Every structure is written in C-alpha cells, then in structure tokens.
Amino acid sequence: MQRIRTATLADIPSIQSIAHRTWPVTFDKILSPDQITYMLEMMYGRETLAELIKAKQTIFLLGLDETQTPVGFAAYECRCKGKKNTKINKLYVLPSAQGLGVGRALCSEISLRALVAGDESLTLNVNKFNQPAMAFYQKAGFQVVAEETIPIGKGYLMEDFVMEKPLI
Q1: What is the pLDDT of residues 37-58, one digit of tens each?
Q2: Most buried one in 23, 49, 55, 96, CB count within 10 A?
C-alpha cells in the first residue's frame, strides 16, 4: 500500500532526484539529450520548485513506498484558470516503481482533492510520442481532447496531447 503526502520545501531534493532519474529513461527515444537537460533545469531547478511550492497554487504530492521513501511525485492545480477543472502538471514515478500502483495512487488522490475543491474534471498534457504514458492515462479514464505545440525556449517544443477525465 502506497502512502501519499503533500510535499514541502524540504522535499525538493527528492522531487529533483525522481525527475532526474525518470526523465532520461522516459524520454530517451523522444527528446534529444540536450532538450532533456534543458527541460530538467528549467522545470526542476531548486528556485523554480521552491516558488511553486511556496505559492501553494500548485500542490506537489509524493508517492512513498513501504519504507516511506519517495518513489514518485505529482503536481496539480485545482480550479485551473478559474474553471471547475484540476490540471495535473506533472506525474512521474521511478522506473523501478512503475507498475506497482504509485501512479494510480497519485491520480486517485488528486481526483479526491479535485472533487473536494468542487472541480468536475481533470486535465493534463502528455507528450504525444510517449505511448506508455498515453496507455496509463487512457486506462485511468482519460481521453485525448486536443493537441498542443508549446514553444519552451532554445527552439524546443513540447508536442502534447491534452487529455481529460470527467470526475462527475
């Protein structure tokens, strides 16, 4: 049984470690090594994570294994853009812990928190070439509702599907 808890500033090293151990495996056939390095620095720098956690608009959750060691994390925002929608901004599980229910537990916790906030749906972006993630989200009840190409600097793009799951 996994335990989920809200992350604090003290958990930034754990979040960074999970991201740096997960991204190269997840994106090695999709993104160049330079783009992976760039995005990790941009999205998971200490100051960037600290700002997000301090603002309390984006909530980070940690998925813990039976030894209470963080093996996954998610970040979400309720009432995203003033709508009755919770946006999952990040969800990563260590390759060694994938398939053990950590991602499902994180999604379930976010769903519960979204319902408590009065939201009616969950949305997320997923790299459209990341078939394992697409399959995971489809199994969890998400459906593709749009495509987005987002410039992120240095000529790099995020080529994503937008996926949605109704909660009510």
Answers
A1: 999 999 999 999 999 999 888 9
A2: 49
